[in-house]
Design brief:
It is a single chain. This protein has one domain (about 10-180): Up-down Bundle (Fumarate Reductase Cytochrome B subunit). Helices cover about 75% and strands about 5% of the residues. It is mainly α. This is Cytochrome b.
Length: about 180
């Protein structure tokens, strides 16, 4: 059983971003299914997406400076490989999605309004066919992100409830200890 935990910044970033990514997935679904809610959901989607991208950069920087706890030695090699691959996929998606969204809006000639007084500059020239390509990519990557988040959550719960090997506890930190004391 591992007793090593992620550092406090990694845990804070993980759980904050987890809430933001889950909110973003629901906001994205709402944007494509509701005409009446679409304008205010878009107003939430843009700054939240950029915030996720910025936090992903901070999280990567933290990860490079603070090595994550080792996975249990008894885990099969394929599970360790899958865990590493899924984490890097999540990082890649959390960086790519905001950039592709920003690029898509730039190519469509739409402002990336962060607040009433702050608009991000375009990062691509206006081009309708590029906009269409990026919009399709953004949508498919959102599905991939949703699937990856579900797999990540499933693996986390498997480690917490079945394996009980300390992997979940390393990221949960004090949360799990509080829950155990309340029982």
């Amino acid at each position: 059983m591992s007793t090593q935990n992620f550092n406090p910044a990694a845990r804070w970033l993980h759980w904050s971003m987890a809430a933001m990514v889950v909110a973003m997935l629901f906001i994205g679904v709402g944007m494509v299914t509701s005409i009446s809610a679409r304008p205010w959901l878009i107003d939430l989607h843009r700054p939240l997406g950029i915030a996720i991208g910025l936090l992903a950069v901070l999280r990567l920087r933290n990860r490079m400076r603070h090595r994550p706890p080792a996975l249990p030695s008894r885990l099969p090699h394929w599970q360790k490989t899958a865990a590493r691959a899924s984490h890097w996929l999540l990082y890649g998606l959390m960086l790519a999605m905001p950039l592709i969204g920003w690029a898509m809006l730039s190519a469509g000639g739409y402002p990336v309004q962060m607040s009433p007084s702050f608009v991000l500059p375009p990062i691509l020239p206006q081009d309708v066919s590029l906009y269409a390509t990026l919009r399709t990519a953004h949508g498919w990557l959102a599905y991939l992100l949703f699937a990856t988040v579900l797999l990540h959550l499933s693996a986390a719960l498997l480690h917490a409830w079945v394996y009980r090997d300390g992997v979940f506890q390393a990221m949960a930190g004090r949360i799990r200890h509080r829950l155990e004391r309340e029982r």
